[in-house]
Specification:
Two copies of one chain form a homodimer. The first copy, chain A, has about 190 residues and is of the alpha+beta class. The first copy, chain A, has two domains: about 5-145, Jelly Rolls (Sandwich); about 150-194. In chain A, about 50% of the residues lie in helices and about 20% in strands. Chain A has nine helices and eight strands. Chain A has helices at about 5-10, 20-25, 85-90, 110-120, 120-145, 150-160, 160-165, 170-175, 180-194, and strands at about 30-35, 40, 50-55, 55-65, 70-75, 80, 95-100, 105-110. In chain A, the strands form two sheets. In chain A, strands 1-8-3-6 form a four-stranded antiparallel sheet. Chain A has a four-stranded antiparallel sheet with strand order 2-7-4-5. In chain A, strand 4 (about 55-65) and strand 5 (about 70-75) form a beta hairpin. In chain A, helix 4 packs across helix 5 and helix 8 crosses helix 9. Chain A is globular and about 55 Å long. The N and C termini of chain A lie far apart (about 45 Å). In chain A, about 30% of the residues are buried. The model of chain A has no long low-confidence stretch (mean pLDDT about 95). Chain A binds a DNA duplex (30 and 30 nucleotides) through helix 9.
DNA sequence: CGATTCTTTGAAAACAGTCAATCTGTGTGG
DNA sequence: CCACACAGATTGACTGTTTTCAAAGAATCG
């Protein structure tokens, strides 16, 4: 199945759109394949697109002064990804996006997104709904990070993202949660034994 | 000065609005005073308003199963506050909002907000811009929480919110950062001595 | 002033990080 | 198709940090 057809299915479950509207959305999109380990956004580039992951798995992360990776998000199929700060301010991104698996994505430039949003209010409302959901997810993640132990964080991650945790290496989950791989390894053994 | 006049000043620095538009915004607003320690939103209530803090200081927090408070946000003058999850879903809030200082706020119901947004697109754009800013702030806070030590977190908080840190008790900053009051007390002594 | 809230301190225990080594599974090139 | 390299996971010993519990000192408010 073509990439856009998969996206169409996804979209039609969420918004009612006419064929003409879907054509407009399609005509402004671009397809791209990303190889495993390939960069999609490099540090210092501007994140000027909305990107929908059709297949595969991407991650958004940052490298600190000591060279440590800190993973902000994973984006498997049917998720959107961008560095929202760079997207909005137009400033170079401090973050990196690359592919953990061979991936295929659909891309809209910021300009095209704005144009399509203007033409199709229902699509704009949908996009804004997604944004609110990400906001709430961040809210919950912050609550989790200030109120939970490492073990609870891991359990919570597994429960919230069952589709992700067994596709990414443990040390990346550790990075996402803000603990070392060794700690996560021990914490996890500890409670799988119980 | 009247509450709304203060808000008008704030708003006019950010958006160009006609007098008629400002009148509409004013006519849909309600004023409220909140005493120190008074609840503005109780757990289980629906957060169905947009609230602008004109004077004073509010906080948004949650109490976990063990009875510990976890502070999500502080909101001093010129900040907006609500539980966005409850606001959007219409579900009862798991969070609490109360006043740390005697406060005065301006309130719009969700319905009125939507109505005013519909009438004044520039005001909607302004509101959405604010929302994006909160999102980016959350993003940065998450990065901070997974990549920094307790000391760095505190320094960062002081630097990011110089207007807040000296108005709230240390144990609330500790709660916000996700460390115990004792740890924050020690950490802070440690680096003020250096 | 007395009561309450807030901050600090000490000592012990729990927890997480670091460093180094080993073990496992996967996949690629010869 | 095998061997070897490589990425990932685990473990141990040690160190450092944070929590916990208990108590006391400081500041603030009515």
């Amino acid at each position: 199945m073509q990439l856009f057809e998969i996206f169409r299915k996804y979209l039609q479950e969420k918004v009612e759109l006419t064929d003409a509207q879907l054509d407009l959305i399609r005509s402004t999109s671009k397809e791209r394949k990303i190889a495993k380990r390939e960069f999609y956004l490099r540090e210092g580039e501007i994140s000027g697109h909305n990107t929908f992951v059709v297949k595969g798995l991407l991650r958004l992360y940052r490298i600190d002064e000591d060279g440590n990776e800190h993973i902000m998000r994973f984006a498997p199929e049917n998720w959107w990804i961008s560095d929202r700060e760079s997207y909005n301010t137009g400033e170079p991104s401090k973050f990196i996006i690359d592919a953990l698996e061979k991936s295929e994505v659909l891309i809209w430039t910021k300009e095209d997104s704005e144009f399509v949003y203007g033409e199709i209010p229902a699509f704009r409302a949908f996009g804004e709904g997604l944004f609110v959901e990400s906001f709430i997810a961040y809210h919950n993640r912050i609550y989790n990070s200030i109120s939970s132990t490492a073990e609870e964080k891991y359990k919570n991650f597994v429960k919230t993202y069952p589709d992700i945790f067994n596709r990414v290496p443990l040390h990346m989950v550790a990075s996402y949660l803000g603990v070392t791989r060794e700690t996560l390894s021990r914490v996890r053994r500890h409670f799988t034994l119980k």
